[in-house]
Amino acid sequence: MLRLPLVLLANLFLGLRLLLGLPFRLMAVRQRPAWVRFRLAGSLPYRPRRGPRFRLGGPPVEPATVTSLEDFGRALRLLAADPKVEGILLEVEGVSLTDARREALLALLSDFQAAGKRVVSWAVMVDTNEYPALGAADEVLLAPMGRVELVGYAAEATVLGEAFDRVGIHAHFARRGDYKTAPEFFTDGKVSDIQRQTLETFLDERFAALVEALSQSRGKTPEEAKALIDAGPYSAKRALEAGLVDGLVHEADLGAHLGLESKKRGGEETPVPTFGAYLATQAFPPVRWRKLRRRPRLAVVDVAGMIVPGSGGAGRFAAADTVVKALRKAGRDPRAKAVVLAVNSPGGSSLASEQMLEAVKRVAKQKPVIAYVDQLCASGGYMAAIGAKEIWSAPHAIVGSIGVFIGKFEYGGLLEKLGVQRTTLTRGENAAFASNSRGFTPHERVALEREVEESYQTFLELVAQARGRTKEEIHERAEGRVYSGLRARDAGLVDRIGGFEEVCRHAMDEARESSDDFEIVRYGGGARSRLSLLKLLTAAAHPTTYAFCTAAWSLWGLGSFRRLD
Fold this sequence. Notes:
Largest sheet: 8 strands, mixed
Radius of gyration: 27 Å
Oligomer: single chain
């Protein structure tokens, strides 16, 4: 009952503000701009992030900065319907985009261009990941002092075996699957052929996508596009000569370049108007009126970072208790009609992953749960995802790595070098199984092999049951093999390829709710930081079953771990 007066009061306030500003907007209608400026910078979320209403201190936020793909799309649709608007100026400045987000951005720009509008992009410097967004414009501009760091992709595989030997640390692991290369990170002195082949496959796919994007945006053949990449990086002059950009323009001259009327204000050129300035020239700008009936809610639960037991871990790890509590809360919320499990993890503890899987299954009995992979869903991360009704993936996300390994680190040699003497006394053949003073005895090794085999068979059974296949069929796709989203779909490990917004709409459709107007609410925390080697070593100090993928870790530099917003 309290909601009705609050909604009426809120709408009254919005209406009064609209009416009070009407005279000023009417006077500005004739100054409605033909070009509107947007700035792409930082991590671009799908949906707006909730923040403090009032900022105290800190650097001011650039008014033109795009705060989310959803808001950007809404703005472009409004501008596309205005016959006076010729196009937008898109400034690209240090934007960090995963493949999926870049595709979503390019789709918005393509729709805007299809409406007969122009896109002009400008930057001071762009790298390989940023250039496809810059190059999709009708006209690509660069600052005269700028650079195009278009060089392709690289993945660095690291092994620590020899380094550990030198300091007196020895890693002892058992694994199931030739492609489960995670232990090699700690045991080997060089990168294995399998690890190299896995990385090569992903690099080939990413490079092919880059070549295709460059060919389409700049009108080049694939061979010419490859030659352009191989000749990078570029100074502004060389980029212009190579056809990567169409002109060199200083920031202060962008307005004049677009044909805007030049006006002096304190000796500075009038900048290209922002979207906020454009709205100020609308007699009746769009208003988001509060509705009497609450919008249906979509719950999003993040599994982001390395999976570990326990709680907390925000910033680096996906802690099992934290994720389970978030899932339970989403399941109990009567307004949350469906759940999207946003997985962005290389895996981790097998026990913690199975805890998450059981929680996902319980929620899936109450309401639709759809798992989505924007970038990474490997090993334990994939185990958590299979409890969902469907698994969706971005085309070039990393998926799979079904396999396990168990082991520990022996610090006896290091302790001896430091003058530390340890004597291990036991009662029971496997009592010192977890001791870091020595490796495994033959009897302990038997127990180790038994544990890893049992864990692997359990993993196969869980996936086979979830994916409707036999254990033998899953085994052929397992043993640590890693797939892109597209190849995972062909292998039956993923149901559909799509983007985050498409997944959200599908989840609401599955719940038989409106997929046109709903709100997204996040439950639990997500990881934003990169994986920490120190934390990994600490977590792996004792013999524990792990479902972790080092190929995913090696490829993380192509786009770091982030929460889906």
